[in-house]
Design a protein that fits this description.
By secondary structure, the protein is of the alpha/beta class. It is built from seven helices and eleven strands.
Length: 245
Amino acid sequence: MNIALIGYGKMGREIEQIALERGHTILFKIDVDNKDVLTAEEFKQVDVAIEFTSPHSAVDNVKVCLAAGVPVVIGSTGWYNQLPEVKKYCEEHTGGMFYASNFSLGVNLFFELNKKLAQLMANAEGYEVGMLEVHHTQKVDAPSGTAITLAEGLFENYPRKTKWVSQVADQPTEELLGEEVLPILSLRKDPAPGTHMVEYRSASDRIVITHEAFNRRGFATGAVLAAEYLQGKKGIYTMADLLKL
Ligand SMILES: NC(=O)c1ccc[n+]([C@@H]2O[C@H](COP(=O)([O-])OP(=O)(O)OC[C@H]3O[C@@H](n4cnc5c(N)ncnc54)[C@H](O)[C@@H]3O)[C@@H](O)[C@H]2O)c1
């Protein structure tokens, strides 16, 4: 498969390694200094593009791919407020896209565990629930896309909570949280590939589930598997399609 990497940073480099190990060819490595390649005619030789840049550039990059008829795997997070617009653009161009706030198999199992625990806790009295996510200091968005997906999964099965609020460590807020609010605490330190924790705490005990990534290999492998899945397809896909969850 001929792949274009859009964003050749920490994730782009990790994905390159996995893609080569799996026998694929990297046709283009696109970053800020050679962005014009994205619009070039030869870009059409690409079977799938894999986009890991930033919340600010993801949507424009995805639209260029879809307009060129190149299916795109989107790893960038922090742009999901524009998801309806991007889905519409994809449909209008009869394109193919695959997006995930987290491409790791372990995290996607963790999403399911979180939903199941929320279901079990829904009728338990005396517990208060909160989330913590820890990432490296260069991460632009807070809370992480993964934490937001976890929050949405919890809301599905835990009717007492209906919205989340972001709390950033070392920046205390005076805001009083209503009963319906799920606090998500974001902590930034180095090195930290990504930790997510959901905690139910009562006066006498606490129940905690945690996912901790040791490195970026899990995300990168998932992104390459997503690209293999997307090749030759039209439509909009997520990890639930790939993993048949
Ligand atoms: N979905 C997942 O599983 C997952 C996992 C890890 C990271 N992420 C997300 O992926 C994104 C990238 O993460 P990273 O750790 O590789 O960051 P990074 O900062 O190491 O790399 C991003 C690269 O994108 C480049 N870039 C920025 N704007 C660009 C543009 N307009 N066109 C082309 N290249 C551009 C930067 O120069 C940089 O080299 C972030 O949004 C991060 O939150 C998602």
